[in-house]
């Protein structure tokens, strides 16, 4: 029996599928695990350990107003942008779930911002919504301009996050919602369920795990905002996000230990929000995680 187990273990190691996993594992170790471990250790090696020892950087971060306040600034941008993206993407994806021709056209149009990138989106917004942009000029000609600015402030960054993040949220939700078997809603319709009740009692419970994942991924994407906060916001004022604090520590102050500390805190905040969302999902729904076909 022992010889049979050893032979089975040896055959698993000779399996070509197992060896195909080696490049992926090495990639994860080199690109994600090692940088994270190195950054974590570096954050406990401050340039001046006399003010708190290994935790000096963390103490300095939470004792410095223009550092710890970046957490709230980033959350005030990332959370509303994520809620808007998921909230708009859900009804559109639900409406297009069975209309294949319109679905392809809409998907093609909506994914264009992903191909442009945040820098080109920022440039376009400056052209359209800037003080000399055609949109602003048109409002002034029509006497509709009330002095509200859409660039170089909070609103400019938020609009940019919605434009760049919406296609990502839409594609995620669409992939989940098209995986729900349409037979379920047709069966409910034969029993007299209205479209609203079909959505409320069938689609939404099955879609809830996917919505939670779409929210988490969209939030992580929005939380790491940097180009938009610099190009469309006020990086020294109301849009000084945590990524800007990390950049300044690394490339202006050349304090890579402090930059690693900011990055670790940034990751911890994201992890806390993701854990809260997934925990709430577990409390609200404990059924199957998918309603896929077949």
Question: What order do the helices and strands come in, and which of them pair?
Answer:
Blueprint: H1 2-13, H2 16-43, H3 56-63, H4 65-96, H5 100-110, H6 112-129, H7 134-141, H8 154-177, H9 182-190, H10 195-223, H11 227-231, H12 242-251, H13 256-284
The low-confidence parts are 290-294
Structural class: mainly alpha
Termini gap: 39 Å
Strand/helix succession: HHHHHHHHHHHHH
* Record field, number of beta strands: 0
The overall pLDDT, averaged over residues, is 85
Strand content: under 5%
Shape: globular
Descriptive overview:
The protein is mainly α and 294 residues long. The protein is 76% helix and 0% strand. It contains 13 helices and no strands. The chain has helices at 2-13, 16-43, 56-63, 65-96, 100-110, 112-129, 134-141, 154-177, 182-190, 195-223, 227-231, 242-251, 256-284. Helix 4 crosses helix 8 (154-177) and helix 4 runs antiparallel to helix 10 (195-223). Residues 290-294 have low confidence and may be disordered.
């Amino acid at each position: 029996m022992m010889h049979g187990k050893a032979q089975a273990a040896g055959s698993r190691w000779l399996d070509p599928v197992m060896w195909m996993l080696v490049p992926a594992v090495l990639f994860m170790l080199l690109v994600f695990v090692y940088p994270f471990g190195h950054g974590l250790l570096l954050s406990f090696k401050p340039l001046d350990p006399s003010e708190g020892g290994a935790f000096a950087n963390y103490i300095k971060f939470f004792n410095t107003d223009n550092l710890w306040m970046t957490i709230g600034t980033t959350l005030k941008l990332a959370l509303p942008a994520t809620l808007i993206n998921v909230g708009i993407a859900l009804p559109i994806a639900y409406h297009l779930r069975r209309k294949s021709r319109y679905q392809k056209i809409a998907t093609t149009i909506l994914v264009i911002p992903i191909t442009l990138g945040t820098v080109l989106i920022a440039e376009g917004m400056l052209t359209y919504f800037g003080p000399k942009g055609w949109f602003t000029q048109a409002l002034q000609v029509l006497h509709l301009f009330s002095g509200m600015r859409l660039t170089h402030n909070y609103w400019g960054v938020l609009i940019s996050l919605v434009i760049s993040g919406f296609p990502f949220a839409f594609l995620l939700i669409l992939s989940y919602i098209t995986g729900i078997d349409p037979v379920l809603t047709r069966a409910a319709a034969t029993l007299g369920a209205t479209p609203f009740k079909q959505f409320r009692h069938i689609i939404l419970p099955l879609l809830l795990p996917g919505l939670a994942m779409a929210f988490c991924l969209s939030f992580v994407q929005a939380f790491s905002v940097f180009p938009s906060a610099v190009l469309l916001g006020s990086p020294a004022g109301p849009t000084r996000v945590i990524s800007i604090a990390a950049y300044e520590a690394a490339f202006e102050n050349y304090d890579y230990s402090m930059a690693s500390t900011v990055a670790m805190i940034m990751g911890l905040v994201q992890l806390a929000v993701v854990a809260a969302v997934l925990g709430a999902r577990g409390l609200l729904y404990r059924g199957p995680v998918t309603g896929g076909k077949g």
